[in-house]
Amino acid sequence: MRMELRVCKHCYNGDHGNPQKTAVTEDMVACAKRIREYKDLIGIDSLYISMVEEGDRGGAEALTVYVANIEDNQIQMNDTQLVMEDGDGNTLVYPEPDDILEVLTRNIDQISEQTRQDVTVELSPDSAEILS
Fold first, then answer.
1. How many domains does the chain have?
2. Is 132 a domain residue?
3. Tens digits of per-residue pLDDT, 2-38?
4. pTM summary value
5. Which of 41, 66, 82, 94 has the greatest CB tally within 10 Å of its CB?
6. Which stretches within the chain are classed as H helix?
7. CA proximity to 8, closest of 67, 65, 62, 58
8. Structural domain of 97
9. Rounded to whole angstroms, what are the CA distances from 33 to 17, 62, 75, 90?
């Protein structure tokens, strides 16, 4: 299985002035980094983390699947999404932060069942609220 987390670089850096979105974005990246560190324990071949900026064509490094929607009669590329591809070439795309957090934290739970090491990621109150 291959995974790619794409997040808005400006949200991650706090440039948009939305501290809640920044906290959730930081948590997604922290979870992805932890999963990448222990990926072999749960059968993940690779996990890429891409920082997307305005004007990027979706920011894909490894998995060229893009999610878009229509806003004000214009196509808008989703800058935050989790893309997963299994060994058979089936692709799943999660464009909603709630779903992305859920998938990432479930992967961390699976890792914690495979090791004695503490693999938990300290989540912000905003992410904890999303997951509750």
1. 1
2. no
3. 999 999 899 899 998 899 999 999 999 999 999 999 9
4. 0.87
5. 82
6. 9-13, 19-38, 97-114, 125-131
7. 58
8. 2-126
9. 24, 16, 30, 23
